[in-house]
Amino acid sequence: MDNYDNTDKVLNVEGVIKKTLDDINIQDNNKIFEKLASQQYTDEIHLNNKNEEVGDEYYKDCDNNINNEIILPKETYSKIQVQEDLSIPPGKPLTAYNQFLASLKDPSCSEVVHLIAKFIQKYPELDSDLIHIIYENNEDDEIIKNLGLDEEINLQLLSDILNKFVLVCNNLLLQTEIYMKNDSEEEKNYIIEGLEKLITSKLYNKLIKIISLENKAIDEYLSIKLKKLKSFVQLNHFDVSEIYMDVLNTENSWLDLCNNELYKFVRVKSPRDKVILIVNVCKVLLSYMNNIINEWKDKQNDNNNFYKDIPAPPAADDLLPLLIYSLIQINPPNLKTHLEYTNHFRNPNLLISEDLYFYTHFYSAVTFLEKLDGKQIQLNIDPHIFEINYFSNTEEYIEKSDQVKEVITKKNNLINNNSYRKNSNFHQDIDNIIKKLVLFPLQYEEILDVSDLKMGDIPNLFNQYRDLSKLLNELKTIYNNIH
C-alpha cells in the first residue's frame, strides 16, 4: 500500500491527477507556484516580531542580543541543475528548502504542483479523488467516513493522510524530468523534507487548531503547574552532579539560550524546524555542561592537582534533569499542542538518530512534568514540603486539574477505528498482537518502588509504555469491531 513505485500505480495516479485539475481555476504553473510558495519560512528564520500565539508576558525578558536564527545542522543540497530562469530569487538565502521551491517551477513538476494546491485547498475534508490517490481502493470508503472537523477528530488518521500524501508526491516528483536522473535515497529525503515543509507551512493554522482541540486543557494545566513549580523548585531538587551545580546556580546565560530556542519552537511552522529547535535546546545544555567540566579540569591543572576521578562527559542522567528544570523556568505557552503537532506531522522515517534521541528526551521531560505529583512521581524533595508549596491557593489548579482528567479519560477511551477493518483476518491479527505481547521486553518489572528508578531510565520507560499502549489499543480496536 505504501509502495507507489510500480508503473501501473503511477499511471493510475497520473490519470486521477488530471481529473482533479478540472476543479482548479489557476492553470498557469508559475502563478499557482507563487501562490503556494508565498510567505514561506526559510530555513534561516528571523523571529524579531511577536506572534499572536505567544502572549505578551512570554519572553518579554528575552535577551535581544541573542541571534534569532535557527542553528541548522549541515544541509544536504539536491544534485539537480535548476534552470537559470527558475533559480532562487534575489535576496532569498541559498538553503535546501529554497532550492526545492525553485525546482518546482520546472514545467515537468506542473501536475504535482497543482495536486499539492488541490490537497491544501481541500484538507482535511478531501474528496474521493484525492483519497484514491493516497490509499488503495478498498480503504477509500472507510477513510472518507472518518474525515471531518469535529470534537473527536482522529488525529492519527489526519497525520497518516498527510504523511502518505507527501510520499505520493515524492514518488511522482522522482519521475519528473528534473529529478529522474538522481533517484537516490538522499534525493528522496531531500524532496520529502521540502514537501513536508511546504505543505505543513501552508496548512499550519488549520493543523495547529486541530491539535489544540485535544490539548488546550492540558496546555492550560501545564502552564499553571509550571508556574507553581517555578516558585519553589530548585536545581538541588534534581539529580544534577555537584560539579555543575554551583556554576548553573550562579549563571543564567544557559537559560537565556534555551529560552531563545523555545521561543522559536512555539512560533515556527515546519515540524522539522521544531525538531531542530528541540535538538538545539539539548545541545545548549550539553555544551554548557561540557564547558563546565573543561574549565574544572583546567583549574585543576593550573593548581597542579592530580585527580583520580575524571568527571565523565554529560549523559542522559545529566541532560534530562536540566531539561525538566529549564521547562519549569521558561514555561513555554501551549507546549503540549506544539509538541503533539511535531509528533503527528514530522515524518517518522526522518525522525532518526540524533534527532530522535533528543526529541525523546524532550518528550520525556514534558511527560514527567505532566505526571509529577510529589508522591509517586517526585523530585528530591520531601513529599510533605512539596504538598505545602504546591497546593497552596489551589482553587484554580483543582479546577484545571479536573478538566485535564476529563480530557485524558476521554482520550484514553477513544479507539482508532480506522486502524482496523472488519475482515476475515481478525484471528490472525489477534495472534500477531499476542505474540508481540509475549515477546515484549519488560526491563523494569522487577523494580518494586518508583524511587528505585533513575532519571536516565525515563526515556526508555516512556518508549516501552508507548509501544505497549499501541499494542493494547490495537487489541481494543479489534475487540470493538467484532462485538
TrEMBL record:
InterPro entries assigned to the protein according to its UniProt record, in alphabetical order: VPS9, Vps9-like, VPS9_dom_sf
GO molecular function term, any single one: small GTPase binding
PROSITE patterns: VPS9
Domain of life: Eukaryota
GO cellular component, one term: cytosol
Gene Ontology BP, a term: vesicle-mediated transport
Pfam families, alphabetized: VPS9
Domain VPS9 positions: 216-378
Gene3D superfamilies: 1.10.246.120, VPS9 domain
PANTHER family documented for this protein: GTPASE-ACTIVATING PROTEIN AND VPS9 DOMAIN-CONTAINING PROTEIN 1, RAB GDP/GTP EXCHANGE FACTOR
Descriptive protein name: Vacuolar sorting protein 9 domain-containing protein
Species of the source: Cryptosporidium muris (strain RN66)
